């Protein structure tokens, strides 16, 4: 049976390779358990000075959780007693990684989404290839950006944070460098040179010194930033998303339907879970005051609510399983969303707009 997660020790570097290329390294329960085992074994091993997360697929670092597996074994499985077992275990792994004693380096190439970000976004050094497609598309699946990534989305400028969080739109390599989500932006052909040097450094240095040496060396391969889709459309993103409420975003989009950019976004938002859009809008502001661990705990609470509400079932069923793209969300429109329920879920007394107008 093929190993879906492979570990190697090279010099004094522990390397974890995700090895499920046919599924774009989508994570299942077995992989999460295996990753934790390797990390725990290495954490107190004096022969291991750092850890590298890598992929054996050129197309993806990790596309997130295996949604078909989740649907069949958990969400749509009436005999399953612990429907949150996968997520609870995954989220505990993410918190463990965020507090890991040794430096972690991650290699972002191709698709980097969902659970893949949970594994790697807290890394001490993130190498970003030109091919990166970084996104958190959860609102279309009936929940919100999770695995603690909301903490990072909340650091983005308001309009861009809503654009990324509500719509799940991709960020490119240059965006990730510009907004401090990654450390170095390289051509893929230069990756082996950097990693060979990392293997060499791991024999000599440890802790912060190892990362500093790697950062200095990596600079020689750092590419100049390119103009991205976000750059080209930043003024429009500001115009449509720099608002105090989701209602205001809808209103300005509806007033500008002659603009193709606004029209496409308007109908995209309408197709998503309105309840989860409302949660994500408020979570952007609330998340500014949370630690990473608190964010992950809130993510699990929101996710369990999504399962109880049937949102995740509908999102995954309609987009991944049956592919009819006709989800039957709990709220047909934003007007149908119970904002008291949203506030209670997030543990806030007032919405952002209510707080601002006091």
Give a verbal description of the structure.
This protein has a six-stranded mixed sheet, with helices on both faces. Strands 4-6-8 form a three-stranded parallel sheet. The model has no long low-confidence stretch (mean pLDDT 96). The chain is α/β, with parallel strands linked by helices. It is globular and about 60 Å long. It folds into two domains: 191 residues, 2-enoyl-CoA Hydratase, Chain A, domain 1 (Alpha-Beta Complex), CATH 3.90.226; 122 residues, no CATH class. It starts with a strand and ends with a helix. Helix 2 packs across helix 16. The longest helix has 18 residues. 50% of the residues lie in helices and 11% in strands. The chain contains 18 helices and nine strands. Helix 1 links the parallel strand 2 and strand 3.
Which keywords apply here?
2-enoyl-CoA Hydratase, Chain A, domain 1, globular, three-stranded parallel sheet, alpha/beta, 50% helix, six-stranded mixed sheet, 358 residues, single chain
Give the strand order, joined by hyphens, for the main sheet: 1-2-3-5-7-9
Overall pLDDT: 96
Shape: globular
Name the CATH class of the largest domain: Alpha Beta
Could you name the ranges where pLDDT drops below 50 across 5 or more consecutive residues?
none
Proportion of strand residues: 5-15%
Sheet/helix structural class? alpha/beta
Structurally, the number of domains stands at 2
Q: How would you name the CATH homologous superfamily of the largest domain?
A: 2-enoyl-CoA Hydratase, Chain A, domain 1
CATH domain topology of the largest domain: 2-enoyl-CoA Hydratase, Chain A, domain 1
SS field, number of helical segments: 18
Reported for the largest beta sheet, the result is: 6 strands, mixed
Q: What is Rg?
A: 21 Å
Note the run of SSEs as H and E: EEHEEHHEEHEEHHHEHHHHHHHHHHH
- Report the end-to-end length measured between terminal Cα atoms: 61 Å
What's the architecture of the largest domain, going by CATH? Answer: Alpha-Beta Complex
Tell me roughly what share of residues is in helical segments.
Answer: 40-55%
Q: Would you report the number of β strands?
A: 9
């Amino acid at each position: 049976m093929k190993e879906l997660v492979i570990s190697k020790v090279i010099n004094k570097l522990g390397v974890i390779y995700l090895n499920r290329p046919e599924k774009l390294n989508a994570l299942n329960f077995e992989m999460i358990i295996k990753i934790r085992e390797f990390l725990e074994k290495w954490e107190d091993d004096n022969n291991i000075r750092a850890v590298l997360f890598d992929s054996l697929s050129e197309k993806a670092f990790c596309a997130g959780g295996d949604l078909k597996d989740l649907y069949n074994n958990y969400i749509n499985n009436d005999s399953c007693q612990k429907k949150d077992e996968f997520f609870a275990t995954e989220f505990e792994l993410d918190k463990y990684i965020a507090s890991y004693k040794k430096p972690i380096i991650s290699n972002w190439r191709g698709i980097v989404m969902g659970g893949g970000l949970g594994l790697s976004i807290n890394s001490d050094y993130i190498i970003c290839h030109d091919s990166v497609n970084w996104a958190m598309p959860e609102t279309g699946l009936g929940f919100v950006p999770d695995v603690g990534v909301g903490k990072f989305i909340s650091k983005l400028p308001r309009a861009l944070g809503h654009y990324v969080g509500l719509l799940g739109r991709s960020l490119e390599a240059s965006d990730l460098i510009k907004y401090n989500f990654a450390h170095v932006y390289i051509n893929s052909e230069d990756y082996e040179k950097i990693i060979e040097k990392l293997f060499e450094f791991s024999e000599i240095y440890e802790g912060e010194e190892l990362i500093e040496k790697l950062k200095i060396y990596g600079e020689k391969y750092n590419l100049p930033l390119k103009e991205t889709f976000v750059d080209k459309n930043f003024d429009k993103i500001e115009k449509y998303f720099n608002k105090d409420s989701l209602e205001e975003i809808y209103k300005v989009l509806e007033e500008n339907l002659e603009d193709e950019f606004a029209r496409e976004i308007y109908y995209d938002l309408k197709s998503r879970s309105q309840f989860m859009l409302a949660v994500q809008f408020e979570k952007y502001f609330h998340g500014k005051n949370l630690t990473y661990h608190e964010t992950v705990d809130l993510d699990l609470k929101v996710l369990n609510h999504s399962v109880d509400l049937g949102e995740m079932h509908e999102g995954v069923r309609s987009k991944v399983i049956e592919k009819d793209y006709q989800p039957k969300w709990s709220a047909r429109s934003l007007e149908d969303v119970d904002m008291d329920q949203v506030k209670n879920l997030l543990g806030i007394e007032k919405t952002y707009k209510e707080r601002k107008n006091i």
